[in-house]
């Protein structure tokens, strides 16, 4: 049995379009956009997520709490586009100022931590 015949059998079995099964086979992953979100506040964060295989990043509202939000935002966009170029990343990251200040998990009041919310 050829590889193409195997893919046709799988497509029938899972009731998926053959084109989707073929594309998934070629990519060796699902052909969906994988976005990283949450905690992306610096060019280094964005570049790391791209290196880990994300197709893009969502930048949270914390960027507005950076020392220079506009410059930080532009640098994050450039980091996504140049995540595989360390020299360019170093240049992009110069002079962006401090990112949003974080808070230690033990400083979050009881009841406000996400794991304690809900039912």
Kindly summarize this structure in a few lines.
With 119 residues, this protein is mainly alpha-helical. Helix content is 44%, strand content 3%.
Structural account:
The protein is mostly helical. Helices cover 44% and strands 3% of the residues. A two-stranded parallel ribbon has the order 1-2. Strand 1, helix 3 and strand 2 form a beta-alpha-beta unit. Helix 1 crosses helix 2 and helix 4 packs antiparallel against helix 5. The longest helix is centred in the middle third of the chain and has 13 residues. The protein is flat, with a radius of gyration of 21 Å. The protein starts with a helix and ends in a 26-residue tail after the last helix. The relative contact order is 0.12.
- For the biggest β-sheet, the strand order reads 1-2
Mean pLDDT: 86
| Structural class by SSE content | mainly alpha
Oligomer category: single chain
Topology, number of strands:
2
Describe the SSE topology.
Layout: H1 3-14, H2 18-27, E1 35-36, H3 43-51, E2 56-57, H4 69-81, H5 86-93
Parallel strand pairs: 1-2
Helix pairs in contact: 1-2, 3-4, 4-5
Keywords:
119 residues; mainly alpha; two-stranded parallel ribbon; 3% strand; flat
């Amino acid at each position: 049995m050829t590889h193409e015949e195997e893919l046709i059998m799988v497509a029938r079995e899972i009731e998926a379009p053959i084109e989707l099964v073929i594309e998934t086979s070629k990519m060796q992953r699902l052909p969906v956009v994988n976005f990283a979100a949450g905690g992306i506040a610096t060019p280094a964060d964005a570049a790391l997520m791209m290196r880990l295989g994300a197709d893009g990043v969502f930048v949270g509202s914390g960027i507005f709490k950076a020392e220079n939000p506009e410059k930080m935002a532009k640098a994050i966009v450039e980091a996504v586009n140049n995540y595989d170029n360390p020299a360019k990343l170093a240049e992009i990251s110069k002079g962006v100022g401090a990112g949003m200040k974080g808070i230690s998990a033990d400083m979050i009041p009881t009841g406000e931590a996400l794991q304690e919310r809900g039912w």
